[in-house]
Specification:
Layout lengths: L7 E7 L2 E7 L5 E7 L2 E7 L5 E7 L2 E7 L5 E7 L2 E7 L8
Antiparallel strand pairs: 1-2, 3-4, 5-6, 7-8
Length: 94
C-alpha cells in the first residue's frame, strides 16, 4: 500500500490475512509490525530494482524493492503468494 507520507500503517488483505504495511521510511532500515501474532520485518528504503530477504520466525521473507510505477509484484512466502504494492513516489527515498 502506497502513498504514505508520514509514519503510518496501511492494511491490505492477502489470502484472507490482514497484512500491515509500514510506510514513510526514508532511509535504509527495518521496521517491525505484528501480523496475526507474528512479528513481520519490513525492509525500507530500497532505491534500485531488487529483492531483499529477511527472516521472520525462521521463514525467509522476500521483499521486492525499487518499483517506480504503480503496480503489484508477487512473491511467495511459505507457499503463500504475497502481493507487494509498488509505486510510492512521495516517500522521499531517492
Amino acid at each position: 500500500m502506497c502513498g504514505c507520507v508520514n509514519e503510518g500503517v496501511k492494511a491490505t488483505t492477502v489470502g484472507g490475512i490482514d497484512v500491515m504495511m509500514m510506510c514513510g521510511c526514508v532511509n535504509e532500515g527495518v521496521k517491525a509490525t505484528t501480523v496475526g501474532g507474528i512479528d513481520v520485518m519490513m525492509l525500507c528504503g530500497c532505491v534500485n530494482e531488487g529483492v531483499k530477504a529477511t527472516t521472520v520466525g525462521g521463514i525467509d521473507v522476500m521483499m521486492l524493492c525499487g518499483c517506480v510505477n504503480e503496480g503489484v509484484k508477487a512473491t511467495t512466502v511459505g507457499g503463500i503468494d504475497v502481493m507487494m504494492m509498488c509505486g510510492c513516489v512521495a516517500e522521499g527515498s531517492s
